[in-house]
Amino acid sequence: MPENLIQNITNNHTDYLSDESRRFGTARSISFPKSEAEVIQVIKDIRSQGETITTQGARTGIVAGAVPFGGHILNLSQMNAIGEITPDEASGEHRITVEPGATLDEIRAKIAPTSLFFPPDPTETTATIGGMTACNASGAKTYFYGSTRNWITSLRAVLADGDTLTLKRGENFAQGRHFSLTTEQGQTIAGPLPSYEQPKVKTAAGYYVADNMDIIDLFIGMEGTLGVITEIELRLIPRPKSIQALTVFLPNEDSAIKLVRALRGEGSVAIEFFNSDALDLLRHIKTESSAFENIPALKDSFNTAIYTEFHGESDDDLEAAVMRVMEAATALGGSDEDTWYATTDREMEPLKAFRHAIPEAVNLIIAERKKTCPEITKLGTDMAVLDDQLETSLAMYDHGLQQSGLQSVIFGHIGNNHLHVNILPRSMEEYEQGKALYLSWAQLIVALGGSASAEHGIGKIKAPFLQLMYGDKGIAQMRALRKLFDPKTTLNPGNLF
Amino acid sequence: MKICCCIKQVPGTTEVKINPETNTLVREGVETQINPFDLYALEEAVRVKERMTAAGDPSTVTVISMGPPQAEDALREAISLGADDAILLSDRAFAGSDTWCTSYVLAMAVKKLQPELVICGMQAIDGDTGQVGPGIAIHANYAQASYVAEIQEIDAKKLAAKRLIEEGYEFCEVKLPAVLTVVKEINEPRTPSLRGKMAAKKAEIIKWGAAEIEAPAEKVGLLGSPTQVVKIMTPPCREGGEKYEGETSIIVEKLFDVLSCMEVV
Ligand SMILES: Cc1cc2nc3c(=O)[nH]c(=O)nc-3n(C[C@H](O)[C@H](O)[C@H](O)COP(=O)(O)OP(=O)(O)OC[C@H]3O[C@@H](n4cnc5c(N)ncnc54)[C@H](O)[C@@H]3O)c2cc1C
Ligand SMILES: Cc1cc2nc3c(=O)[nH]c(=O)nc-3n(C[C@H](O)[C@H](O)[C@H](O)COP(=O)(O)OP(=O)(O)OC[C@H]3O[C@@H](n4cnc5c(N)ncnc54)[C@H](O)[C@@H]3O)c2cc1C
Which of A205, A385, B63, B97 could bond to A389 as cystine, CB 3.0-4.6 Å? Predict the structure, then answer.
């Protein structure tokens, strides 16, 4: 083992005790392995000492999944090699093999000179592909392209005892709800998969299970609880020749929802929503902070916004769809003058700046409030509902927020019926009030067949929601499954349950 | 009111290359954009149009650019941002124009169009001289105000402008017709709308050469340029100085010794 692979935690390591959830944990030691062999060495060494291990990527997670609960921190950010892009004869696509610490930005930079495309697009592009795989990250374009899961063809993992696995898509399927796999060292791991049905919506809560499932899918979204992912092979497809985007401004929320319904048949790759509070927040922050200068000016008449993006073979193809959207928008009180339209990368920038500024503005305001009330955090919901429950869920949010008088914004992936409500508490009292509201929404959404965590995962913070969704029985089944891979809960203790 | 806005197409990046043999910018294969300062000029032109139209004086904005045929892209983009029509001043005879000639050609187009107001950017991010706006005013015999940060009032005859100067602001009244050059703080350029982009797609870009603006051959291009670029060079990178690191008292002493040796202290 290279000397110093495992280091004691010092004051220089404070950053590694936390992630974007801004929760802090503790740890005794940390390592930055650069190869799978080093990962194995660290795991065996730490386990022999009876300590636990928390795996980290870029620590951009917001549910404290990478926050250590004592023990050792296995940080993979330096294991970040990106392989060559190779054609895949069978599918006509391309493949690229990457180490887990490679960031989405780095992978995009590698692909940029080619005419290829890797669709997963979580907003935080400094996330590592290991973290994205462990959390099955998704983004605006998940509406059309699906989550990270859809873009993984193979992965390697190191288990809690140091054994290794290669899981290739299409090679190992469960029999109903029973799975069996053999490690490269010859150990067979087999047993029942949990019997619950996952909600039929976008979800990142708990283990992915389905009858006769491909076992690779069990490892995607497992939040580091079954093993450490050490290599991932990704699918790349040709980049669309034409990309166009629209931000349509509408006079009220009702028209916006109607436009979303109209858009569903038009082949959009993304449909995003921004409520009037979100627009007001941007108007306010633009006057307050020069960091937000780049956000385009918002007319006073703009109330609610819908962003949509189209990918296709030619501008002419897309223009027809754009025109149909505009026709629908006009009937709902929008206009071609009050619609931003981008057909080039440069024109796309202000539309992107607008979308990304909302969570950034929320974070800035919360950081400011923390100065007087350090316990406060933003309360961000991440729930998805069935198609026909979209109006119900939005009405539920609007009603709860109006009754409470809490400051908030609502935005997000409305195409997937997945809206983020961000509550910005001004005091501890409001914080508690917001938390209660959030829990009451989660209960209702789960009862309606939705997911209480659609993309950010469960980590340590949202464990009560997993319980809410799958009950004692579901949790017990998940616990049993985890034990098959990691009998002593060496990996990521505290995550999921 | 008839308003003209002059826009220049410039390279999309700041990493421009100079061809060492011809001493001209390498423009091939370089992404282009509207000179960023001109976006403020255009936005102001469109706002004046909206303001005058609302006040009962139906107004228009015509964008003008002198440049190669591909400058048409910049003109279309300007239409997507609210201009009504666009004129491309393009002619082989214009090649090699210096700022005097560029202003002259633009001024000849202005004379033909006879707008009450011409708005330019403060400067171009590639040429960087800031001479063209004032040059147009002189050649066309228009009044001028440069570095305008706000048009406070405007009517058919005159405008009141707030100018950015080193010590603060200067307030002045300008008789029309006039040329203004504007600074960034004057407004916030809008984002292209669907209506604008569709209009841009359909727009007919008018092309004028030397003949159409009645500019004699000896007054344009290399021939008409009183200045010639003799040589362009990249200044050598500054060599890094010496850096002392360590205990403050020791390095201060060392620095003092060095400076006394140089007889600076
Ligand atoms: C501003 C902002 C915007 C965001 N937007 C989105 C979004 O649009 N969509 C979205 O899905 N998420 C989003 N996120 C959340 C976060 O970026 C994602 O969850 C991301 O996938 C985490 O990657 P990471 O490398 O930072 O992982 P980390 O935060 O370091 O880890 C996340 C979890 O994965 C585990 N893990 C990491 N690497 C491995 C590995 N190699 N093997 C096993 N387990 C591992 C960790 O133990 C932890 O449980 C956002 C976060 C921020 C701060
Ligand atoms: C000595 C000299 C010799 C030159 N020789 C050549 C040459 O041989 N070949 C060559 O290609 N270039 C040559 N140039 C560059 C060319 O003359 C300038 O790019 C041009 O005059 C504009 O000047 P500028 O870039 O400094 O613009 P500025 O004066 O900084 O621009 C101010 C504003 O004027 C307007 N404006 C400027 N240029 C135009 C335009 N073309 N169309 C419409 N509006 C405009 C814009 O509103 C702009 O914001 C030469 C320049 C100099 C100084």
Answer: A385
In terms of residues, how long is chain B?
265
pLDDT band at A346 (very low <50, low <70, confident <90, very high): confident
Q: How far is the CA of B142 from the centre of ligand 2 (A)?
A: 19
Atom of ligand 2 nearest to the CA of B89: 42
Q: What pTM does this model have? A: 0.87
Report chain A's C-alpha Rg in angstroms.
Answer: 23
Contacts B195 to A, Cβ<8 Å: 335-337, 339
Q: Strand, helix or coil at B114? A: coil
Tokens of A123: 């907003």
User: Which pLDDT score is estimated for B27?
Assistant: 67
> What letters, b where the CB count within 10 A reaches 16 and e where it falls short, cover B208-245?
bebeebebeeebbbeebbeeeeeeeeeeeeeeeeeeee
DSSP H or E stretch at residue A53: strand A53-56
For B181-239, how does the pLDDT look when each residue is reduced to its tens digit (9 = 90+)? 999 999 999 999 999 999 999 999 999 999 999 999 899 998 899 998 887 777 787 87
User: Is this complex's ipTM strictly greater than 0.85?
Assistant: no
**Predicted local distance difference test score (pLDDT) of residue A2:** 63
β-strand B85-89 against B206-208: which pairing, if any?
parallel
DSSP A388: G
The ligand 1 atom nearest the CA atom of A76: 41
Phi first, then psi, for residue A173 (nearest 5°) are -115, 150
Q: Evaluate: CB of A132 within 6 angstroms of ligand 1.
A: yes
Q: How far is A259 from chain B (nearest CA, A)?
A: 16
Q: Are B175 and B159 in contact (CB under 8 A)?
A: no
